[in-house]
């Protein structure tokens, strides 16, 4: 169990850089003594409280900022051993010496203490089974699709580097989010059409494929290995919505779907349009552990049913004939929904549903690109 030392101090605003320099020197000692990490946090939004607050706790003046700091240790024994050496180090190590590295604040007003965590919640560092990890556009014209999406979203594109396949990686400002590839003649012969497809992480692709078939789904593309990428298969749920299941070759967490915070250019929402919501819940719940997390009444369109997998990752809704066959709709985040709408229309795409306000103040809309693939956009209205 980790152990935390916490500190709150008042630092003259004019001494901000002096404090950073002081902390860089002194905190390096804690790391050498076994600390896992040290955070020095300069007050940015420290409101006045009704009875007490951070500023009053350290008697901060109008010319001082509140700094909140903590040291995370692997355990209390490591922390106690480190603290037992402090008096000696203050005499022998210049980084800890008040003479060589003086505190640029009033240490008498510091408040501090040691804390044993009793509840710990952390964002996962790896993708879990059931996470959305990649998005892929199958299209009849890769060059035209790249030109269209580059004007609608802040995306850049790069070749995957395979001589025998034109596969292009989609880069958002922060991370890779997906790929573009052409629909092959064989796919067209089997009824394929331009479409955005989602990838879901699984521990074992072959076991997942067997489970899909056992639960009434179908295999669209047999499991295959892609060097340095992973093992994958294309399947369809019992109602016919296609998707990939994949075990990535590398560890780490995919950020294609931004489930931690809004990230422009990333997937922001995953929406299943299905002919049978109850059956879809059974299928995806059993396979991926997804939970039904409340409904929103959409009138004649029925209930919009939210999906929770860690956080809320999307929703299921009843599809009708006008929406086409059951499918997954991916919504990508844009910085300005009205500018994105104009770009879709100027680029030859079609806006199926104009921007509607959604909970939280953003706006969402659904579109079809010039080759016929459906997609969604979500973002703020700036005008």
What is the secondary structure topology, with strand pairs?
Layout: E1 3-12, H1 16-32, E2 37-42, H2 54-57, E3 64-73, H3 76-84, H4 86-92, E4 111-115, E5 132-139, H5 142-152, E6 156-159, E7 168-171, E8 176-182, H6 185-189, E9 195-201, H7 205-214, E10 218-226, E11 230-236, E12 242-248, E13 267-274, H8 277-288, E14 291-297, E15 303-309, E16 311-318, E17 327-333, H9 337-346, E18 350-357, E19 363-368, E20 374-379
Parallel strand pairs: 5-8, 9-12, 13-16, 17-20
Antiparallel strand pairs: 1-3, 1-4, 2-3, 5-9, 6-7, 7-8, 10-11, 11-12, 13-17, 14-15, 15-16, 18-19, 19-20
Question: How does this structure look, described?
Answer:
The chain is an alpha+beta fold and 383 residues long. It has nine helices and 20 strands. The protein has helices at residues 16-32, 54-57, 76-84, 86-92, 142-152, 185-189, 205-214, 277-288, 337-346, and strands spanning 3-12, 37-42, 64-73, 111-115, 132-139, 156-159, 168-171, 176-182, 195-201, 218-226, 230-236, 242-248, 267-274, 291-297, 303-309, 311-318, 327-333, 350-357, 363-368, 374-379. The protein has an eight-stranded mixed β-sheet. The protein has an eight-stranded mixed β-sheet with strand order 14-15-16-13-17-20-19-18, covered by helices on one side. The chain has a four-stranded antiparallel β-sheet with strand order 2-3-1-4. Strand 6 and strand 7 (168-171) form a beta hairpin. Helix 5 (142-152) runs antiparallel to helix 9. The longest helix is centred in the N-terminal third of the chain and has 17 residues, at 16-32. The model has no long low-confidence stretch (mean pLDDT 92).
């Amino acid at each position: 169990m980790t152990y935390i030392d916490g500190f709150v101090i008042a630092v003259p605003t004019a001494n901000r850089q002096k404090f950073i320099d002081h902390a860089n020197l002194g905190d390096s000692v804690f790391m050498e003594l076994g600390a896992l990490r040290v955070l020095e946090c300069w007050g940015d939004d420290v409101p006045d409280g009704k009875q007490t607050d951070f500023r009053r706790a350290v008697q901060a003046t109008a010319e001082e900022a509140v700094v909140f700091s903590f040291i995370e240790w692997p355990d209390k024994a490591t922390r106690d051993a480190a603290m037992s050496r402090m008096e000696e180090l203050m005499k022998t190590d210049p980084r800890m010496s008040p003479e060589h590295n003086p505190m640029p604040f009033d240490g008498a007003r510091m408040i501090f203490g040691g804390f044993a965590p009793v509840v710990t919640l952390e964002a996962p560092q790896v993708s879990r089974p059931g996470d959305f990890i990649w998005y892929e556009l199958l299209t009849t014209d890769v060059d035209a699709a790249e030109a269209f999406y580059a004007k609608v979203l802040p995306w850049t594109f790069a070749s995957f580097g395979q001589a025998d396949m034109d596969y292009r990686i989609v880069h958002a400002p922060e991370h890779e989010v997906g790929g573009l590839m052409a629909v092959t003649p064989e796919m067209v012969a089997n009824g394929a059409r331009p479409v955005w497809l989602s990838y879901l992480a699984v521990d074992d692709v072959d076991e997942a494929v067997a489970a899909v078939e056992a639960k009434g789904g179908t295999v669209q593309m047999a499991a295959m290995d892609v060097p340095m990428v992973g093992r994958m298969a294309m399947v369809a749920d019992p109602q016919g919505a296609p998707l990939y299941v994949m075990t990535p070759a590398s560890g780490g967490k995919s950020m294609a779907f931004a489930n931690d915070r809004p990230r422009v250019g990333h997937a922001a929402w995953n929406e299943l349009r299905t002919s049978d919501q109850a059956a879809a819940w059974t299928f995806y719940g059993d396979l991926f552990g997804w939970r039904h997390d409340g409904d929103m009444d959409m009138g004649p369109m029925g209930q919009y049913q939210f999906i929770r997998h860690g956080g809320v990752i999307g929703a299921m809704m009843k599809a009708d004939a006008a929406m086409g066959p059951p499918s997954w709709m991916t919504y990508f985040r844009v910085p300005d929904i009205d500018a994105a709408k104009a770009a879709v229309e100027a680029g030859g795409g079609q806006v199926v549903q104009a921007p509607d306000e959604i909970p939280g103040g953003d706006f969402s809309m659904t579109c079809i690109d010039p080759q016929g693939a459906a997609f969604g956009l979500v973002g703020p209205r700036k005008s």
